[in-house]
UniProtKB/TrEMBL annotation:
GO terms for molecular function: tRNA-dihydrouridine20 synthase activity. The active site is at C98 (proton donor). It is an enzyme of class 1 (oxidoreductase). Its EC number is 1.3.1.91. It holds the Pfam family Dus. FMN binds at P15, M16, M17, Q68, K137, H169, N209, G210, G211, G231, R232. InterPro entries: Aldolase_TIM (IPR013785), DUS-like_FMN-bd (IPR035587), DUS_fam (IPR001269), DusA (IPR004653), tRNA_hU_synthase_CS (IPR018517). Its cofactor is FMN. The record marks N95, K181, R184 as: Interacts with tRNA. Belongs to the Dus family. DusA subfamily. It catalyses: 5,6-dihydrouridine(20) in tRNA + NAD(+) = uridine(20) in tRNA + NADH + H(+); 5,6-dihydrouridine(20a) in tRNA + NADP(+) = uridine(20a) in tRNA + NADPH + H(+); 5,6-dihydrouridine(20a) in tRNA + NAD(+) = uridine(20a) in tRNA + NADH + H(+); 5,6-dihydrouridine(20) in tRNA + NADP(+) = uridine(20) in tRNA + NADPH + H(+). Keywords: Flavoprotein, FMN, NADP, Oxidoreductase, RNA-binding, tRNA processing, tRNA-binding. This is tRNA-dihydrouridine(20/20a) synthase.
Amino acid sequence: MVISSLPRYLVSIAPMMDYSDRHFRYIMRQMTKKSLLYTEMINTQAIIHGDRPKLLDFSPEEKPVALQLGGDNPSQLAECAKIVEDWGYDEVNLNVGCPSARVQNGNFGACLMAQPQKVAECIEAMQKAVNIPVTVKHRIGIDEQDSYEHMANFVKVVAQAGCQKFVVHARKAWLQGLSPKENRNIPPLRYEDVYRLKREFPHLTIEINGGITTLEQIKAQLPMVDGVMIGRVACDNPYLLARIDQEIYGDDTPIRSREEIVYSVLDYVDFWGDRHVKLNTIMRHLLQIFAGQPGTKIWKRHLTENGYNPDANSQLIREALSLRELVNS
């Protein structure tokens, strides 16, 4: 895969376990058309032996979308990468950043940073199997192997196997003693290490991740790296994404209001409601759409208290909007 064949996404939305489902991605796409969206990490064993339609199906509106794989077996990763490509995904990403104990027990995720040659073998096998980009998401280091030189050697070895895009979470991971949540916050951010990586590997696509929560911060990063991955802010303040296409990509499409975004998913909610998907399964991704705005509490309360009802549909959303408007009138 040559660098010219890689689309440049200035912003991407991180793979987040138990959150980056198809409904989350559909909702994010109502706000940004140009950013790259990810699935949550899916284990190779789940794809090989599990319910593939349930795991892999997505709506055409979600594209471009990448699928993140977890695993350490080159042949199984190659098999899954081919399945992912045939399913219509635009990119397949290998997780070398998750520090959870369950992932470590499977010998994948962040612990693979200690095995760059193993990762290189996985990437090489995957690239031979597909034509879509094969990329890696990793940390700046793990445990005591956290110097810049450790990370640069990892990237060098994996790049020699053909990987051209590295998404770097600018924190090290402690494999013991910190939870996955703590590993997202406690180890200090080291942005300069990522900037140096880009300077020393200018031919590679380097995307930065970690602690970036505002458009101003995204803009400040882009002169230093090729792209920015944001994560939890898409859950906590999703309306931020409504400005990305205009302010980051220079698109002239008008920015939708929060209410317009909510109205844009009503038919989608009813489509899935007719297929026995509970309303809260979808609307949990829009509970924070009015974050920081008057009436957000009553909006969230009405949806959370009633969204578990099997009969709840878009009418409940309309009611929540009306209650919020009453508070603001």
